[in-house]
Amino acid sequence: MSHVDDKVIELVRTALKLEYCGERLYRHWAEQTRNESGKAMFLQLAEMEKGHVEETHEIFASILGEDHWKSLVTEEIGCVHSSGIVAEIEAVVASRGHTEVADDIQALRMAMELERRAIHVFKEMADHTQNSEVIEMIGKVIEEEAFHYDNLQAQLDSLLNVGIWLDKPEFRKS
Prior knowledge:
By secondary structure, the chain is mainly α. The protein has helices at 6-32, 36-64, 66-77, 82-95, 103-127, 132-161, 168-171. The chain has a single domain (6-171), classed as Ferritin, CATH 1.20.1260.10.
């Protein structure tokens, strides 16, 4: 492991917040939506977020070193509150002129913002490391996050244009 600069530490802290809150946020949005297909989709994303936490452990431990990683996780886990991230995401969505129209649509917009942030953080992290194995692992996480974003976008398009949720086959990764 090479020297880790403050920017990488900041990115890891941000990614930790997003990943550790992700499952709780998707469960929150599942409760917020009234549609059963929408609830199922958000719950499926919540389960996927559990896997991301495990994947990111390997990435961050490779970047920071196992001991530094463990101390950072211990530090951050006590500070992570999903309500703060929800408030940030709601503010960003509102700043784009997306006032609350319906619970389903607003939940999708907030979930898309969460995924957009995760993609941005991981891309920036890849730019700050030289380790090709770590860059490859980060690339896989980015692909998964982009897949989630694209599926959320398809759901939003479906609701805005037709008013129905897509079902599981459209949401499955091929």
